[in-house]
Amino acid sequence: MSLVKMQKVLLLGHKSEKEQLLRTLQEAGILHLSSLNEEELAKEIPDLVPGEAIPGKELESLVSDLNGSINYLSIYAKPASLMEGIIPSKLEFSQEESNEIIESYDASETISKCNKMLKEREALNTKENSLNAHIGLLSNWTGLDVDLEDVRSTKRVAIMPTTIHTKLTREELEVEFSSSPVDMEIVHAETGKVNCILAYAKDDEIESRDFLKGFDSETVDLTGLKGTPKRIIDDAHKEFLSVYKRKQDLADDSKELEAERKKLLLLYDHYNSLMETKQAERFSLDTKNAFALTGWIRRTDKKKLNSIADSFESVSLSEAEPDKGEDPPVELINSRAFRPFETVTELYSMPRHFELDPTPLLAIWFALFFALCLTDAGYGLILAAIALIMMPRVQGNKRILWLLFTAGVTTILVGALTGSWFGDLADYTNVPALLKFRHAVQLFDPMESPIVFFRLALGLGVIHVFFGLGIRIYQDIKHRAYLDAFADQFLWLVWWIGVIMLLFSTDQVVKLALSNRVLLPAWMARPGMIATGVASVLIMLLAGRKEETFIMKGLMGVMRLTVLGGIFSFLGDFLSYLRLMALGMTTGGIAMAINAICLKALPIPKFLGVLIWIPMTLMLGVFINVLGGYVHTLRLQYVEFFQKFYTGGGEPFRPFAKNFKNTLVKQVPQTGGD
């Protein structure tokens, strides 16, 4: 539940060794670089100026060219498998292969080929779009057996290819035009639209235009086209074939460069890493001959950083004090059991350096609430199996898979206790042993006893919120904020415990369906009422303690008791946990519906029903419900739980290190010396 201890350090050295030091630090991956306080350090070293962070133009251009070539060749790369599509894997190279490619492979020829093919591909796409446009434009003009070059106005006659949008029939339109100064030759007619050639004498232009204003028409621009529409379309189709064939040839040529693409990926990672080294220089302050660099390390890495500094002739390392208002970066450290749940904390926000790491505090709750959202042992089994299958295929951090595996195992347990194994699938198997096992471990059936699920969800919600208040009390006491712990947290615990004592010692608990009977002795009602009353008065008196006027103190006290994080806010929090019941019962309902449709309702053989059941269960049952359960479980942690004690806002510890996105270079194992 603790955070990694951090130490701020200062590195000073001769400017000639700065670039090599940055490369060594990048290889080590232990220093979180931070910007130097220029004003403070300038007092000690007056000539310091910010270091340049401009990579060489050649390096920047090379990285850009490599990226462009990779993107082009990726279009024609072998399609990834379903598993690789979900979790992309990095290309693996041995250290020897990596060194050979970086030192001896000339990428310029491949980049040149890719650029040439890319330009040709873009030109072919442009040509294809142009042909499509011509075909689309002329598709309704094929009945015009005239060279389009001849369809143009003369000195005395205006000729216009036109599309008229009208509800009139062809015959009705011809009648309209017969009594006008405009001649019309219909080329193509369909419902609501007519393509035609309009012609009128220019001497009658005013009268003709006035007549045409009565129609919804648009002139079609056919300038620049040669030949009849039919011939142009036929020629376009022939060109299409030619373009298609050339694109296929380009695709074949590009696929032959697959081996080169893999080398380009390695080179991109390598040179991009070098560029990041150059960009890291922005964190330094320089004089004409010296530089200063600062950052944060784990205290356990101090010895390693000392060793790096000692390997340089001019570099010295010293501990540094944080600047005023500067917080150290944060890295979580948890036991193996809790480590998968760090993803939940990181997704919200990292804790500040003085806060508790909430990861171990939320772990059990997250797994339990997720399981209650699914409440199906079969779905939990599939989820756990998928997580295990994907483990060997994932390189690097596997925490999210371990999180899903843990959630899957918990779901199996909760599903068994609620008697749900792919819904009511056991009822369709007619296997007595399965039915006997299901009933032996089942505690209750949510579909038959929803009120039990209601009480369980609400009860867990109350305990969860109380747990959050308890954590905040601990934090306030730790930071010696005793009045805050008493007024803002403890009094609310007293208030709600008093309400619980009052409810559960009277028949109100039965009327509210919180229990089938009164659970506490009647004499506890009076202490409960007193506790709630006293807590109410104290909350109103103390909640506005930071306000300046008595009126504002009183007003804030009433508001804090009721709406501003008060009674109604707590009620809203408690009721939010009913989503556990809603989602859990929805999962069971969907599973039962899938079973009924595939194994009972459809008039097909049972084996075909099973074939339909499998994808429906995976897609509708597992995928949708797992996604819904994950999102709603996160919400309960972030909105209802975290707001009681957790602020967050810490800066994650991100050491300056090589970040190869596409490739993985396997290091040669070190052998012991004599």
From TrEMBL:
Location(s) in or outside the cell: Membrane
GO biological process: one example: vacuolar acidification
Transmembrane segments: 362-388, 400-422, 452-474, 486-504, 524-543, 550-571, 577-598, 610-631
Pfam families: V_ATPase_I
GO molecular-function term, one example from the UniProt record: proton-transporting ATPase activity, rotational mechanism
Assigned keywords, A-Z: Ion transport, Membrane, Transmembrane, Transmembrane helix, Transport
Membrane topology term: Multi-pass membrane protein
GO cellular component: proton-transporting V-type ATPase, V0 domain; vacuolar proton-transporting V-type ATPase complex
Family: Belongs to the V-ATPase 116 kDa subunit family.
Protein name listed in UniProt: V-type ATP synthase subunit I
Protein species of origin: candidate division TA06 bacterium
